Each structure stands twice: as C-alpha cells, then as structure tokens.
Amino acid sequence: MMPGRVGNGKSAETSRLPQPTIPAKPLKVAAKKGQTSSFVMPTRTLPRHFLYDAEPGAVENGHRSRSPNAVLKQIDDFGLYGTDVDTPQELARFEVIQEYRHRSRLPVHCAPRRHGGSCGKAPAVGSAALPEITIDAGPGRKWKSGGNESTPATPTIPAKPLKVAAKKGQTLVFRHADPNLSHGIFFTTPSLVLLKTDTKPKPNAVLKQIDDFGLYGTDVDTPQELARFEVIQDIATAPAFQCTVHLADMAGVVEKAPAVGSALFRRSR
Ligand SMILES: [Cu+2]
After folding, report:
1. C-alpha distances out from residue 122 to 37, 75, 140, 222, Å
2. Which terminus of the chain has fewer CB atoms gathered within 10 Å of its CB, N or C?
3. What is the C-alpha to C-alpha distance for residues 136 and 231, in angstroms, rounded to an integer?
4. pTM for the whole structure
5. 167 alpha carbon to ligand 1 midpoint, in Å?
6. How far apart are the CA of 158 and the centre of ligand 1, in A?
7. Å from CA of 73 to ligand 1 middle
C-alpha cells in the first residue's frame, strides 16, 4: 500500500456502493448500510494506533456476541482490532449493517494508546439519512446555502448563481428568510422538476416536489418554508432556479454532489 494514500477499500463483500477507506487520523466518513469501511494505518502518523468501540455495542466483532445495537460488523480476520499497531497496514474492515439513527454517533475510535488519549475527535462513521440541504432566500437579494451565496449583478459584473451540490435521496428545503424583501422560488428548467401541480409524467425529472405548501412560483413576504424537493435521480443536467421577484439577479443551480465514499468532510488536525 502506498504510504498515506487512501482508496484501498475493496472487499469480498463489496456491494455496488463505493467503499470508503479510513486512515488512522481523525476524519468523518459518510457510510450507508451495505457499505464496507476499511481502516488503514498510513505512515507518518503517531505511532501505535488502535481501534476501539467507543459506543459499547455499536460494533459487532469476534469478542462479542451479536449486539442488537450493532451498526458495524467486523468482516476481517486480521486480528488487529483493539491492538496497538506500529506499521502501515490494514487494521480492520467493517460492514455497515444498520442505518445510523443519529448523525453524531461515533461508534469507532482510533487512538494512540501510548499518548493516553484519542486522536482528537473520533473518526465518525456514517449518517442515517442524508442531511437536508437548506437554501434560504435572503436576507438581501441573494440565495444562501451552506456558507455559499449568489450575488446580484452589478453594472460591471454579471450575477453569479448559488451552486448547491446534492445527491440522490437528499431533500432540498427552500425557505424565505428575509424580514424586508419578498422572494419566491421557481425552476427555469421545468422538465427536470416534477411539481405537485404536474399532471403528466416527466421522465427526465431529477427533482420531485414533496411539500403541500402551495407556495411554489409565488411571491412570499414573510419568513417561512417555500418548498421541498427530493432528489429522485442522480443529477446529470443541473436544474436551475430563480427568485420569483428578483429573477436572474437571484439565481441558483443544483449540481451533482461527489459520490458517497469520497465524502471526506474535515480533518480535525
Ligand atoms: Cu428574491
């Protein structure tokens, strides 16, 4: 294995889902039921890492009888789980056997025992449902989501749309969030969005309206939810939306998010 590389996640139990690989450093990995997680110890980390079950019962392994709470099941025969390991090699493999109920669960820890603590934050594995994506209209003439925002046109610079990354199964929540201005949501790519009011099928739809608020396509004055959409297919062509009031000056697109398994959100150090 290449030192410090990740990506060696193949397994006999491999499903069609991509398989995340987890080096012995604090990180977050999103995993779904049926995926396999491979814990790998790269070089140039603190010496002597080991894995342990930080939430008793969350991991089913050879040392325990079957736990009804288990969300991970050990599937390797390396015999390294719970031991200190000095040299780069695979430590363990786990299959996700249940959906996680809470995104914040931290079922598996890795720690340098010599240093008497954890590696900082525990490596978190998994998330139940994919998180909702909230897209706020305002405050101001802009869409905002996850720290990104659209910008209105200026005399010299064209308007810049908000880019939202979403994957199949996720929900987009559009909200009016402006005490001063009216806003609304509508898509400028109607063939890609199945609305509650649609009476005919849309075979190319990647988004499906799932709310009954009746506010889609209308101007709304006060803060409230405007509409909800589920991503029903992997996004190929990105649906585009605008504000019903500010039009192209306040626009956005919903793009395909990276695949599960490459979802490395943050290193804590
Ligand atoms: Cu607006």
Report:
1. 15, 21, 39, 41
2. C
3. 18
4. 0.52
5. 25
6. 16
7. 49
